[in-house]
Amino acid sequence: MGSSTIATVCILVASALPSGIAQTVGGLSVQVGADQPVSTSLPARPLVEPHLAANPINPLHFVGAAIMSVRDEADVSQMRCVAVASFDGPRTWVTHEFSVTGCHDPWVAILDDGTAIFVGLEIVNRAPANLWLFRSPDGGRTWSTMPHSFGPNHDHPTLIVDRSGGRFHGALYVASTHSTRDTSGIYRERVFVARSMDGGKSFPQVTEPEVMNLHYNAMTPIVLRNGALLVPLNAHRRLVADQRDEVPLRNRLYWVIRSDDGGAHFGVPMLITDACTGGFPSLAADRSNGARRGRAYALCQLETGPYVTQSGDGGDRWSDPVHVPKTPSADAAGQGRVSSIAVNGDGIVAVSWHDRGPDPSTKCWDVFVAFSGDGGETFTDAHKVSTKPSCSAAGDNGWAAERWPLGGDYSGLAAAADGTFHLLWADSRGERYELRTAQVRVTR
Question: What is the DSSP string of 204-235?
Answer without folding.
Answer: -EEE-----SEEEEE-B-EE-TT--EEEEEEE
